[in-house]
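Researcher: Quick test of sequence recovery. C-alpha cells follow.
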C-alpha cells in the first residue's frame, strides 16, 4: 500500500513538472510572438539564420555618393593629364635633340663640301689664266667654275635655311650706304653676265639713306635675286637693279625681261619646299626661301610683280638706319 502510494506520488510529481515546463514554453512563446518579416528588413531575428549572412553584408557595404564619384573621376583625369604632359615633354625633348643633330650634320657637311669646292674653283681659275679666250678647254673650265660656284652657294643656303627654320639666323645690324652694296652684288654675278651675255643696269637716286642691315647678308639677297634673273633672262636681255626711298625704308627692285610668272604661282615662290615640277620662271627654290628669311630678319618685306610675257620684278624693303637709331634711343629712354 505504501509502495503504491509512493508510485502515485512520483507520477503526480512528474506530471506536475511536465505541466510547469509546458506553461513555461507557452509563456515564452507568448512573450516573443513570431511575426512575418517585413520586406527589405535586415533584422537577423526576423529574417532567420539563412538570410542573416547576405543581408548583413549588404548592410555593411557603404554606397558611394555622387560627390565621391565625381571626386574619384577628377583624380583619374588629373593623373591622365599629367601622364600625357610628361609624354609630350619627352617627345618635345627628343624632337629638339633630333633637330639640333640635323643642324650640326648639315653644317659639318656644308663646311667640308665648301672646302673641297674651293680647291676645284681655284684650280680651274688658275688654268683659265693660262688658256686664251678662244683656246681649247676654255668653255669647259668656265662651266666647271660656274657649277662650283652654284654648289658652293647651295651649301651655304642649306645652312641658312636650317638657321631660319630654327630661328637662330645671325644678323648683325649697322648703318651702311646702299650703293656699295649694289656694286658688290653686281660684281659677284659679273662672270655669269659675261658668259650669257646680257646687260645689267644700276639705277639709284642720290637721296637714298643708309640702311640698318648686315651688309654681307643684303649683298647675298641681291646676288640671289640677280642670279635668278640671270637664269631666266634670255641672251641679249636686260636686268635692272634699282634702289630708292620708300617712306622710312629703302626699297630695292630687280627687274628682268624673262618669261614672267603666272599670278597663281606667286605664293609658291618663297616656299621652303618647292613643287617637284616647277614651271619655267617660277622661282629660285631654296635660295628664295633663304632670301625671304634674311629680309624678314631685318624687319623688311619681299614680294614679286610679274605676268607671263612681261618679265618679273622682285621687290624688298629694308628700314633706313636713321629710323633704327631713333627707335633704339627711344627704347633706352
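Model:
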Amino acid at each position: 500500500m505504501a509502495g503504491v502510494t509512493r508510485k502515485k506520488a512520483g507520477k503526480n510529481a512528474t506530471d506536475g513538472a511536465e505541466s510547469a515546463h509546458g506553461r513555461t514554453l507557452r509563456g515564452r512563446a507568448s512573450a516573443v510572438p513570431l511575426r512575418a518579416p517585413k520586406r527589405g528588413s535586415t533584422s537577423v531575428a526576423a529574417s532567420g539564420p539563412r538570410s542573416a549572412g547576405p543581408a548583413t553584408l549588404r548592410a555593411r557595404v557603404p554606397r558611394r555618393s555622387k560627390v565621391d564619384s565625381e571626386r574619384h573621376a577628377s583624380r583619374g583625369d588629373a593623373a591622365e593629364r599629367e601622364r600625357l604632359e610628361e609624354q609630350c615633354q619627352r617627345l618635345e625633348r627628343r624632337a629638339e635633340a633630333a633637330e639640333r643633330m640635323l643642324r650640326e650634320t648639315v653644317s659639318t657637311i656644308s663646311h667640308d663640301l665648301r672646302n673641297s669646292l674651293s680647291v676645284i674653283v681655284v684650280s680651274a681659275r688658275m688654268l683659265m689664266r693660262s688658256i686664251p679666250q678662244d683656246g681649247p678647254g676654255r668653255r669647259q673650265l668656265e662651266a666647271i667654275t660656274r657649277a662650283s660656284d652654284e654648289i658652293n652657294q647651295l651649301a651655304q643656303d642649306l645652312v641658312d635655311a636650317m638657321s631660319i627654320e630654327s630661328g637662330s639666323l645671325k644678323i648683325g645690324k649697322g648703318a651702311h650706304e646702299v650703293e656699295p652694296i649694289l656694286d658688290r652684288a653686281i660684281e659677284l654675278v659679273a662672270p655669269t653676265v659675261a658668259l650669257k651675255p646680257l646687260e645689267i643696269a644700276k639705277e639709284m637716286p642720290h637721296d637714298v639713306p643708309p640702311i640698318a642691315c648686315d651688309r654681307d647678308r643684303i649683298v647675298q639677297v641681291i646676288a640671289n635675286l640677280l642670279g635668278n634673273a640671270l637664269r631666266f633672262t634670255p641672251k641679249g636681255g636686260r636686268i635692272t637693279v634699282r634702289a630708292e626711298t620708300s617712306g622710312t625704308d629703302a626699297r630695292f627692285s630687280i627687274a628682268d625681261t624673262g618669261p614672267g610668272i603666272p599670278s597663281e604661282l606667286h605664293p609658291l615662290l618663297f616656299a621652303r619646299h618647292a613643287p617637284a615640277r616647277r614651271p619655267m620662271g617660277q622661282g629660285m627654290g631654296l635660295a628664295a626661301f633663304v632670301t625671304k628669311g634674311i629680309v624678314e630678319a631685318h624687319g623688311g618685306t619681299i614680294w614679286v610683280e610679274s605676268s607671263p610675257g612681261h618679265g618679273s620684278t622682285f621687290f624688298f624693303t629694308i628700314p633706313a638706319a636713321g629710323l633704327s637709331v631713333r627707335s633704339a634711343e627711344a627704347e633706352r629712354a
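The two ends are 144 Å apart (CA to CA).
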